[in-house]
Design goal:
The relative contact order is 0.11. Helix 1 packs across helix 2 and helix 3 packs parallel to helix 5. This protein has 16 helices and 17 strands. The chain has 523 residues and is an alpha/beta fold. 31% of the residues lie in helices and 16% in strands. It folds into three domains: 153 residues, 3-Layer(aba) Sandwich (Rossmann fold), CATH 3.40.50.970; 141 residues, TPP-binding domain (Rossmann fold, 3-Layer(aba) Sandwich), CATH 3.40.50; 178 residues, Thiamin diphosphate (ThDP)-binding fold, Pyr/PP domains (Rossmann fold, 3-Layer(aba) Sandwich). Its EC number is 2.2.1.9.
Amino acid sequence: MTNMELAAKVIQELVDTGVREFVLCAGARNSPLVHILDENKNLKVYTFFEERSAAFFALGRIASSRRPVAIFTTSGTAVAELLPAAVEGTYSSLPLIMITADRPKHYRGSGAPQTIEQVGIFSYYNEVALDLDAENSHLSFKSLSWKKPIHVNVSFEEPLIDGPVPQIKIPAVAERTKLPGQTPLGTLKEMETFLNTHKPLVIVGILPEKAYGTVLEFLKQYKAPVYAEGISSLRGHPELQDILIQSGEQMIHRILQSGECDSILRIGGVPTVRLWRDLEDKYRKIPVFSVSFNHYTGLSREVQHVNSLDLLSQVEFTSKQHENVKVNFDDAAQAAKVRALLMKYPESEQGMIYSLSKKMKKSSVYLGNSLPIREWDSCADQDSPPLRVAANRGANGIDGQISTFMGWAHPETENWCLVGDLTAMYDLSALWVTSQVDAQKFRIVVINNGGGQIFSRMFKKEIFINKHQISFESWAKMWNWSYQQWHNIPVTTELADKQIIELLPNAQQTQDFWKELEALWKE
């Protein structure tokens, strides 16, 4: 089998499996694959010069399209650049297919240029690692679970281009690979027993878009108190106003400590709230039942777990939860006090996010990393919910956030990305793909507070913060994006289609807000 025939076989198997988008990082060793992708104009191909950004962009496309996406790299350290996205894809159940080119197998272990041990490089973070060459070309994806990324390593001999470019056939009826979340690991009866014998507080984490309706209908019927994280896309939903906790995470602790709720029902991804970590020790005796789209419980202790959000539409209640007047009254009172603080300190980080969120109603909002997510959950306007919200919360890493946003962005909405300054600096090459995507309206908001301020309240050492005096105006100019700098949130302003907004919060107002918020919850 020639190199060109082997490359065509790999791409044809991907297409037959349902892959419709390909992310390409071209190099010499993967040139047989590059030629085929380039000359088959019926294939959707995104090109990148940098593998780490490309892989996170592919994760964004998977999250948006709910289809596997394949990324192609050349050999050597280019392969290693995929590891961060493979880790995120594993814990987010996003099946990235990694096609890596390699030098001939007899080069392995020799230390020859651009020769590393590529097979097995992803260790735990792939479902399978297939090692192909002309003599061993069997390839099939039919038996895979699609719960983790997949690695296909393809060795090519010299000369690399050794024949004509084959044509790839797109099936008339599109195959659609089922992503994880179809098969329950628990049972419907166990879920019903838990729901009918407990008074749970519901925490809703990140959800696949196709599950929004199912979860919404369940919550409306069950009527237990709900803490909906921003990344659930249900925070502030008008149909849940009578059961949503709106004053912040601290209310969860009050409810559990008062006994108003005796357990936790987790729906969706692993929650980002601090309470989730407290379930390991402080609240370790509180029962937890999780209903998710993957098999991770998110806790080291044993909990009941069901791997199917679809089961929420099948569950039957012997008795529904009743509206808790005391919880609603207390929550509403605290929420009003928090809003008053946000308006008192409009130039604090929290106040700026509150005002900024009002501009994002019915938009697509991507929340990048820890501090923006936590500040959004505590401060964003509940009356201006976005249409869809996303984040990379599988491994909670700082890298690849803007690249994932660029892949996830929707062509029919405004697309907002809220990130910290260090997170932005981790992913400066992300804007490379701007001209290749269908989405048109991008607003990347960088909260520039001079370093990693999430650590300032955790540790009292400046070394954790990575202080800097960098402005992001030159970054916008580099990629021909428009730039604005805001010290406060303007009531009206004209924004370009490709806009970077640098927020410069008032540090003193931010500190004063935190102090008064903490005092508020001690009352």
